[in-house]
Amino acid sequence: MRRKIVAGNWKMNTTYNEAMDLVAELKSSLTEEVVGETGVIITPPSVFLSDVVNELVDNPFIAVAAQNCHEQDNGAYTGEISAPMLASLDLDAVIIGHSERRQYFGETNASCKVKIGQALNNELAAIYCIGETLEERKSGNYMDVILSQCAEGLEGFSEEDMDNIILAYEPVWAIGTGETASPEQAQEVHAGIRAWLVERFGGEAAQDISVLYGGSCKPGNAAELFAQPDIDGGLIGGASLSAADFTAIVKARTEA
Ligand code: PEP
């Protein structure tokens, strides 16, 4: 069954104390009633992951993910973090191909494919991000761009693999800009992705794959986005740094 999911991407934010305070606040605000059937994931900076996992070890409502992993298991890649390292911390998932990584660190659909493989081989779910730039949106061929990201990043993965892959449609022009895709714009793309998934993996499998929306999703617009039939949840950046806002978004997902 397709899961409702809300994932918070903390990016390169918070000091150690701020991170642990935020976890403490989330632990008390994300109650059973708020979370319901929603899968909640937080992705703190990698240096804090171990302590965050320990803090949440008895908490059934909040899963923990990393923001990236390397293509290799280990080796001479100074500063990088591998999927086996993340798995050894008992993490649940890893974000792959966030647009900031594509933009600033040269990630491509091909490198994302390798990273998704690394995640799955290490029993981590992969949250694979796709989405068009403003130029691509304006040019009108955004759907081709998004479906190429799907086809190339997911090349070679099976229907079973898709049990552990979550897609996140994040229009680059809406990330951190305060400009959100309208529910209709987001739904149009999500429906296109869903149709592609049906063609690629078959109807039954495609119906089980969660596709999240990300891009300036806030408490004020979450409910109308989550009311769209093909939007299964959200990948939340800025608003995930506030326990109150993130909790309100989770609540909106649970209630939609
Ligand atoms: C993100 O970085 O994944 C994101 C959606 O950011 P924001 O919510 O701040 O636009």
Helix content: 40-55%
Bound compounds: phosphoenolpyruvate
Kindly report the name of the CATH homologous superfamily: Aldolase class I
| Overall strand count | 8
Give average pLDDT, whole number. 96
Number of domain modules: 1
The rough form would be described as globular
Oligomeric composition of the shown chains: single chain
CATH architectural category:
Alpha-Beta Barrel
**CATH topology type:** TIM Barrel
Please report the number of helical segments. Answer: 12
Name the structural class: alpha/beta
Strand content: 5-15%
The CATH class, by name, is Alpha Beta
Q: List unreliable stretches of 5+ residues.
A: none
Order of helices and strands: EHHEHEHEHHEHHEHHEHEH
Topology:
Layout lengths: L4 E5 L6 H14 L2 H4 L3 E5 L5 H7 L6 E5 L16 H5 L5 E4 L2 H7 L3 H13 L3 E6 L3 H6 L2 H12 L11 E5 L13 H19 L1 H5 L3 E4 L4 H8 L6 E4 L6 H13 L1
Parallel strand pairs: 1-2, 1-8, 2-3, 3-4, 4-5, 5-6, 6-7, 7-8
Helix pairs in contact: 1-12, 6-8, 8-9, 11-12
The structure holds phosphoenolpyruvate.
Phosphoenolpyruvate (PEP) binds next to strand 8.
Question: Key features?
Answer:
single chain; 256 residues; alpha/beta; TIM Barrel; eight-stranded parallel β-barrel; 12 helices; 44% helix; globular; binds phosphoenolpyruvate
